[in-house]
Write a structure and sequence with these properties.
Largest sheet: none
Shape: elongated
Low-confidence stretches: 1-27
Number of strands: 0
Helix content: over 70%
Structural class: mainly alpha
Mean pLDDT: 80
Order of helices and strands: HHHH
Number of helices: 4
C-alpha cells in the first residue's frame, strides 16, 4: 500500500500543475477575447459622444476622462502585451487632452479621431 501512495502523490501533483496551467491559459484567452470586444466599443461610444459635445467643452473633457478610465480597465485585464500597451497609450493620450473652449473641443475631436483610428488598427492586429 505504501508504494501506491508514494507513486500517487507525484502523479497527483503533476496532474494538478498541468490542470492549473491549462486553466491559466483559458483565463488568458477569455481575458483577451473580452478586451478585444470592450476596446472597440469604448472607442465607438467615445466617437459618438465627441461629435455631440463640441459645443460643451466640460462634458467633452469628462467623456475623454471616462473613456481613458475604461481603457485603463481594459489594459489591466488584457492578456496580450500589444493590446495592453495600445490601451495604456491611448488612455494617457485621452487623459492628456484638456478641453476648455469650443475651439479646443474641435481640435480635441480631431485628435481623438486620429488617435482612435490608429488604436483600432493596433487592436485589430492584436486580436486577430
Amino acid at each position: 500500500m505504501r508504494h501506491l501512495k508514494s507513486r500517487f502523490v507525484p502523479v497527483a501533483a503533476f496532474a494538478l500543475c498541468v490542470f492549473a496551467a491549462g486553466c491559466g491559459e483559458v483565463n488568458n484567452t477569455i481575458d483577451k477575447a473580452q478586451a478585444c470586444l470592450e476596446a472597440p466599443k469604448i472607442i465607438t461610444d467615445l466617437g459618438a459622444q465627441i461629435t455631440k459635445l463640441t459645443d460643451d467643452p466640460q462634458a467633452m473633457d469628462k467623456a475623454l476622462d471616462d473613456a481613458a478610465a475604461k481603457l485603463n480597465g481594459v489594459a489591466d485585464k488584457a492578456a496580450n502585451t500589444t493590446l495592453k500597451e495600445a490601451s495604456d497609450d491611448l488612455a494617457k493620450t485621452l487623459s492628456g487632452i484638456n478641453v476648455g473652449s469650443a475651439s479646443e473641443a474641435v481640435d480635441a475631436a480631431q485628435k481623438v479621431t486620429a488617435e482612435s483610428a490608429a488604436y483600432v488598427e493596433k487592436v485589430a492586429k492584436a486580436c486577430s
